[in-house]
Write a structure and sequence with these properties.
This protein has 310 residues and is mainly beta. The protein has two domains: 111 residues, Sandwich (Immunoglobulin-like); 182 residues, BT2081, beta-jelly-roll domain (Jelly Rolls). Helices cover 6% and strands 53% of the residues. The protein contains three helices and 22 strands. The strands form six sheets. Strands 7, 10, 12, 13, 15 and 16 form a six-stranded antiparallel sheet that branches. Strands 3-4-17-11-14 form a five-stranded antiparallel sheet, with no helix packed on it. 37% of the residues are buried.
Length: 310
Amino acid sequence: MKILKLITLLTAILLPAMSGLLKAQTLIPNGGFESWNNYTGYSNPTSWDTPNSALMGIFLFGKAVVYKSADFHGGTSSCKLLTQNIAIPGSAFNAPGFITLGKLHIDIISQTFSVDGGVPINDQPTHLMGFYKFQPTGGDSCTVGILLYKTTAGVRDTIGGGLFSAKVATTDWTHFSAYINYTTPTIPDTMNIMAISSAQTDMHAGTALWVDDLSLDYTVGVDRQDPAAGISVYHDKETGRLIVFCEFTREQSVNARLYDMTGREVYSLNPVSVANSRIIIPCNGFGRGVYVLVVQHDGMIFTKKILLGL
């Protein structure tokens, strides 16, 4: 084994313990929909906003579109989103079941809505996961999605997002996973998760979506105190790729190598010019275990531990 390779591997091994790399995971507030707040004629899941208040406020003709359901994947309840036809004198419209961790604003007259806000987050999940059941009518589709934001100097930018959508009916609780694509390796400060029973303009009354046990997946952790904090690594299990985000102050030629713990080089990248960009490493053929990523940039060597299949 070459001396440089040995030194690099020893440096990586002697970095802070692996537990330091696996950051505490953010929990989705009431992601199991066990807690509900009761109001006159309807209930809302705790920590989530819904159209129920605005729709039930329609005198004599109001209907709820989000319900506590005894049909659950885990615990004792789930969240049911039901598209309803709201018929008022002189008008009628279909309103979808909708939940958000942000704040929902509805204009009944124009039949429009907007969403803002969210909940705090200070890490970078790789996937939004959960379980769902779906009963569409008239070709409806449902959607569950996540958006991640970062506010700088009073300006909020969307820096990541993931989406799961379905059109086919499923009568059994089914697992879903939505890969989160980041446009920058910046750590977000706000997260919003939303789900809607009818995710298209032509909505159909009777379409129902059940969601339960929502969670965030963290495939590879990042130690922000590490000297290589400008490098963030994510393992996308769905596509079999390691995604290496590089956040360097200036563009320089970069070499990347990946080693297993025996010192065997399993991947190498010819020099490429990288600044705020990403490197894609296919890893479908790699076995379970600990790997070391070595990135040479601007005369410096950065190392990252990576856990695959553990």
